[in-house]
Amino acid sequence: MNVYIDETNREPKYKQLINSIEKAILNGHYKRGDVLPSINSLKRRFHISRDTVLLAYGNLKLRGIIYAVSGKGYYIKTENVSTIERVFLLFDEFNSFKEDLYNSFLTNLDTGVEVDIYFHHFNSALFSKLILDNIGVYNSYIIMPANVKDVHLVLENLPKESVYILDQTQKELSRYPCVTQNFEEDVIFGLTESYQLLKKYKKIVFVYVKEKQPKEMLKGFKKFCKSHNLEYEIISSLVERDIVKGDAYLIPDDKTLIRLIKSIRDNKFVLTKDIGIISYNDTLLKEIVEGGITTISTDFNKMGENLAKMVMEKETKKIHNPCLFIKRNSL
Asked: Which domain holds residue 121?
């Protein structure tokens, strides 16, 4: 047997089991697909509890080094034992600014942390399945809930100390540490910063898709417009809608932004003079297109940095990520 415990060693026995299995893999005694000693055999051989063996095997399983086959035992999954922690990262969807967040998160993690990324695409059934299928597989679960309903009921299946909420939260998720945006305050901040420019437009049009955008964003928009006596309209799409000279648009979605810019060109309108645009979430492309698009945006690099620090140091903070207003040519 290539697994051992030294009774004279003061290190916890489960850690000795982990170390001995890792050493046996590195020395070539165990290879991918090999079966490990059974829990009962280790229990009898070293006079230890079943829980001690399960703790060791559970750690190796979480790190992706071994896997279990029901009724048969535990097997070597990989000969790479450098992974110190496995992270489950559930995004709503992938886009350019989420890529900045993801890359910043990876850059700020410790060496040896393995991250698997999934997407729920605002689908409640898919959201539940992805989490329930991965219970007990990861050390940490980072969840971007978006507007998915009953998220808290699904997350109750996970250990509370392993869950982190990202980007958008819900009141039922207040028990979990988080790095999020305050969408209501951030929209009010951005619109307040642009108020002197917005005053020259006849109406502010918010293209709001309730299935995707946070309801707090809508709340902040309404509160600002009413407090400043600005005429406003809320629509869900620009499809089959004529744009009107003198309107300014708040656009959270990049596809809608592209459609609006095309409509401006097709109508031979002049951006800033005839139509104003504020986009949500800054990207490199928005620095360039049409001479630059004005944005309200969180700092996604900072969000990734804060999230990595929280996961690595097991912090239980609630962090409101900073918001930026970036004035460019579109307003």
From this structure: 85-181+300-321
